[in-house]
Structures are given as structure tokens and as C-alpha cells.
Structures
1.
Amino acid sequence: MAKILAMFPGQGSQYVGMGKDLCDKFDVARNAFAEADEVLGFRLSTLCFDGPEEELLLTANQQPAILTVSVATWRVLASETDLNPALFAGHSLGEYSALVASGKLDFMRAVELVRLRGQAMQKAVPEGTGAMAAVIGMDAESLLETCRAVDGEFGTVEVVNFNSPQQQIISGHKDAVGAIIKVLAEGKVRCAPLPVSAPFHSSLMAPAREKMAPKLKEAPLGPTEHSVIANLTGKLSQPYDIDNLIRQIDSPVLWTDTLSTAVGEGCDTFFEIGPGKVLFGLARKAVPKGSKIIHSDAIEKAIEGARSLNS
């Protein structure tokens, strides 16, 4: 029988129309959106289904939107199949989805928390002064050395997402990120600026961490036996330590280590649950050949794939 890592995406996976197909077909998905709408006091469902895109892209909206689509997808798969992951993990924001799916965090409390998280992260750095970029085709240690050489001269720049052996994300002050992009371009290293409004996961997010710490410490966690791999360490956290969510706000996402831990624990199937295919793509570059990698963006195929895992 397959040993499954359930993976939940973070920011950047959103698109206008996400979740609509789920809600058209499944009561459990509609219920998830109704719960989120109730917590937020506005129709998140309408924003996800119809946009406008510029409103969906706002961090304070994008975070609960991705969480809700991910949990709605999980509920559909759980109700329609015998999907039983051995481990759970989420990329950045996705760690909240993983905690909900594993039974450790109440969904409506999670919606409230990620709404507050998005607002705090947006306010941590003045608009227009931060930036992020993906660096493709450069190993992590070389990129860390390059950042250390530039950091301070133009402001802060740090490696904040270790996504795969050949993809990392840098974050920090806009001028410092721009300086790194220029240096790497001279060495023929591909860089892609990200359409984000703040330098997420960098040390510049410390004010957001301080704002969220008391809220997260108040969040009750269920004592389920399901294990979650934490972004902060890239290792299993069982029982789950809420400090993982507090410190991940201004700490790097260790996604390469997360996948390595899952492989080390015997996982041979990697199932992205939520909008988009970002983690599906990263897994294809980081897990052993022969592993099964599935995404849920087309729900009928995802249900079929989940059912096949136990056949």
C-alpha cells in the first residue's frame, strides 16, 4: 500500500475561479466556503470564483482563500475516497492547511488566524520597499554566499525558501534583491521576480511574528496521532509545537528538507491538495524516480488517483 505525504500549497497558487468546480459538485466543499464566509464577514467564495484578481492577490485575502480551497479539496477527497496520508506538510501558509487536515487545528480558527497573519505580514514592511525573486539553476550554498556578499550594502537580502535542489527564493529590501538579480544575471543564472507585495519569510517580517505570537499561542491544538513536518525545521513535529507557526513567519521554508524527511520516513507518493500545481512541480525535481506524484487541481482525476492508491 502507498505511503502518502499530503502536501498543501502556499501563496502563489491562487487563481480566479479556484474552488468553483468543487462547490458546484460537492456539499462538503460548499460547507467549507460557507464557514470561511462566516468567519471573515464577507463572501470569500465570490472573490475566489469571480475575482477581481487584484483583490484576490492582496495578502490578507489570498491567505484565507488558498487555505479554504485546500481544506475544501481535502474534505472532498476524504469523503469520496479512503485517502489516508502517513504524513502531512504545507508550504508556508500551507502548514495551516496541513494542521487542519491532520485534525490538529480547527478550520474556522485557522481562517481567522491566516487572515490576521496576512494583515500583519502586509503591514510589517512599507509597501513598495520589499521584493522577492526565484533563483533557478543555482545550488543553495552558492546562493547563500552571494547573498552574504551583498547583504547590508543595499539593505537586507536573504534566501528564504529552499524549494528544491535547483530552486531557491530570495527576499528582502527591493534594492538588495535587485542587486542580487543583477549579479546573478551576469553569471547567466536565471532569476524571476515574484509578484508579491512584501518580503515574506525574511527577517524583515519580525514585526509580523511579534504581532501573531500571542494569537497563535492561544490557538488550541488537537492531540491527533497524525504527524506534520514543520517548515521551520524540515522535520517531524509530533506532538506539534505551535512555535513552528510563530517562527516560520520570519524564517526560511525548508521544503527540500521536508521532502527529504518524507522520503526518509518511507513515503513513495506525494499528493498536492489545493489549488495549482506548484508543489507537484517541486516534488518532481526532488523525490526519487519512481515515486508517484499527484495533484488535485482537476478534482475528478484526483479522486480517481486517490482511489487507485489503495487498489
2.
Amino acid sequence: MTTNASSELDTLRRDLVDEQAALDEVVGDIKDQEWQRATPSPGWSVADQIGHLTYFDTSAATAIADPDDFRIGVSELVAGATNEGFDTFTLGGFRSLSPNEQLAAWRRARRALADAAQSLRDETRVPWYGPPMSAKSFLSARLMETWAHGIDVASALDVTRPPTERLRHVARLGFITRRWSYQVRGEELPAGDVRLELTSPAGETWTWGPASGVDTVKGPAEEFCLVVTQRRHVDDTSLVAGDLGHHWLVRAQAFAGAASDGPKPRNIA
């Protein structure tokens, strides 16, 4: 059991680095003016998306290596967001850099995180902006953030990024954060289990939850991941779900922080 879990953690470490490298391939050679292209996130440019990843990859490395220093950083973030605004506090310094400096800063943050992640063990609990996370969920969350913000970057640059089997980590995180999606909104989790049956990019079937669940969500893994990262509304996907599953998916939030609403459905008349 421990060996399998350790193997999963090693896989996550590699997959996180690979996901970051895949996004680096998208932005590594773009022109300076392309860093300022608007992305689907209101008010955010391509540079801001990378800046966001830089800030929180740095924070993640600190959370692993020095939890006490990370907690001080959380207090500073709360104060800074209150006094200056979230974007100004987290992105202000990054926005003052040149595109080459921005890319270099993100690469340094990624290396620091990768180095810190080597110390993680199966039993490690890492402090974060919501509840403390297991090592596996923590690295999955960093991969999820990289993928989701990469979707925004690719959209701004008119680049197509084929989905990979690394989405399994995002899908798992999306499933296990079902309770969180209600909790962060101050709502009670409805009674009844939901089963998840997804088709992976390679055509495999990924499942989570009991076969006896009250409801089952079925469909492509990529679409499920877009929903739980709030990049697409469930009604604009081919996902199939009953009332209980749909009730969850319109609230789904696989990331920490305050409650957030994803895009409205495009097909509203």
C-alpha cells in the first residue's frame, strides 16, 4: 500500500513538471506584445496568468519548506488584498518586469516548487489557503492550476492544447472537492453519493465513487475538468448527469479560496 502511494506521489511530481513544461512551450517564444493579450479571465493578460502561477508556485514551495513562513505570507496576502486589492498585491511586482524577466521568474518558482516537492511523503499534510492538504492533493492542485490557467493562455494566443492523461489528477481533485464546493458557499452537501465515470483522452474509463451512488456523472474527462476549474459551464458540455450531479456541477470548485462562479452558459436564449 505504501509503495503504491509513494509511486503515485512520484508520478505526480513528474506530471506536474511536465504540465508546466507544456505551458512553457506555449509562452516560451511568443512576442513581447503577445504577453499583453487579454485572456478569458476579466482584466487579466497572458502575463497575468503566468504571474498568478508564479506567485502561488512560490507560495507552494514555501508551504512545503517552511510552513510557519507560509502562514505569515497568508496574513500578508489577506492584508495586501484588503488594502491594495488582490491583483495589485499578487501581480504588481510581476507586471513591472519585462516579458523575459517574467518568464525567468516563473521558471525559478517552478524549480523551487519541484525541489521542495522532493521532501513530500505520503503522510505529509501541507498548509494552504483552505484546509491543509495531503501531499497528493497538494501537487494535484498545482497541476490543476497550471492546466486551467494554461487553458486561458492558449485561448488568448489561439493555440490548441490537446488533452493528456495528466488530466486524471485534475479529475480526481474535482471529484474529491465535491463537499468543498458546497462548504465554501455555506451550503449543506445534499444527501446521496455521486459516481463519476469519465472517458480519458486515451479512451480509457476513469471512475470514482460507489457503483451504488444516487447519481452518476458521465462524459469526457476534459469537459469535466473544464467544469470543475470553472472554465466552462456544465450546460455547454456533453456531460450527462441527473439532478444531484447537475446540482453539484453548477457549483463545482476544485480550487481553494473564496467561492467563485464560473462562466454563464452560452446557450441561454
